[in-house]
Amino acid sequence: MALLGTAYVPNTPTLIGNLGVRHENTIKALSRIGAGIGHPEAAIVVTPHFVTGGSIGVVSSPRLRQIYDFYGFPDEFYKVRYEPPGSPTIAGEILEAASGRGLPVSMAENWGLDHGAWSPLIHIFPDADIPVIPVSISPELGMGVHEAFGRVLREVSQNHNICVIATGSLIHRLDLFHSRNSSVPKYAQDYLDTALKAFSKGNWEDLWSVSGELMSAASPEGGELPLRVVSGVVGENYTAIIHSSEIEFSAASLTTVTFVSSSDIGD
């Protein structure tokens, strides 16, 4: 059994329908990632649109309710169907393993598959035949808990062929979408550049130590938490491949990255 892939991908609405732009490089990158992963037993998806308090939520439903958690888009957006199965067995093992490590986790019974998960999945696994386990972020728990949860996912991969996908945008300035901005604000771009360099070097600390000014200017979706989970999965020594890093409306980045633990490369 093995970890078949770990990725950080965008969840922008332009992956769902027509808003006048189409990011072909990103869509092709998502398709390549899915082809590279193959056919896992389950895809664990950490989505910043699923936020819980007091514990990390894990959805263990056998059938996932598709959630259209966006408003004011064209009608075609609400006609897209993506209804993969869940995986109660593997979700249960994640909950058991995390609880065994003393981590605050809980079964999320009132959630389903939000667009933070399904908008990239329609390109990664377009047949909707891969079981999906949505996972929340919980800001009040802090960075360390999310990293530790990532290590739990790594542990579960010893028993199952799974992949871990975190979603979001490193630049996520919703306030700029309608401002007719002609370019990304400098400090936001600096944050993105820092992240890309950190990935290329395989060095998380270069990203974690970025100034609050840059991070605030970029306003990454979910903060650092989705990537903190990824860092727990792949460890401190890793290799990253940046497949695409397009920009949307000078307001959001569509950074698409896969990560491989250096220990896996050495196997």
Key attributes of the depicted protein:
globular; 8 strands; alpha/beta; Protocatechuate 4,5-dioxygenase, Chain B; two-stranded parallel ribbon; 35% helix; 267 residues
Blueprint of the fold:
Elements: E1 3-9, H1 24-37, E2 42-51, E3 56-58, H2 88-100, E4 105-107, H3 115-124, E5 132-137, H4 143-156, E6 162-167, H5 186-201, H6 204-208, H7 212-218, H8 225-234, E7 238-248, E8 252-261, H9 262-266
Parallel strand pairs: 1-6, 2-5, 2-6, 3-4
Antiparallel strand pairs: 1-8, 7-8
Helix pairs in contact: 1-3, 2-4, 4-8, 5-7
Short description:
The chain is of the alpha/beta class and 267 residues long.
User: What average pLDDT do the residues reach?
Assistant: 95
First-last Cα distance: 14 Å
- The residue ranges in which pLDDT falls below 50 over 5 or more consecutive positions are none
How would you classify the helix and strand content by structural class? alpha/beta
- CATH level 1 name: Alpha Beta
Task: Work out the radius of gyration.
Answer: 17 Å
Description of the structure:
By secondary structure, this protein is α/β, with parallel strands linked by helices. It has one domain (3-266): LigB-like (Protocatechuate 4,5-dioxygenase, Chain B), CATH 3.40.830.10. The protein is 35% helix and 21% strand. The chain has nine helices and eight strands. It has helices at 24-37, 88-100, 115-124, 143-156, 186-201, 204-208, 212-218, 225-234, 262-266, and strands at 3-9, 42-51, 56-58, 105-107, 132-137, 162-167, 238-248, 252-261. Strands 5-2-6-1-8-7 form a six-stranded mixed β-sheet, sandwiched between helices. The protein has a two-stranded parallel ribbon with strand order 3-4. Strand 7 (238-248) and strand 8 form a beta hairpin. Helix 1 packs across helix 3 (115-124), helix 4 crosses helix 8 (225-234) and helix 5 packs across helix 7. It is globular.
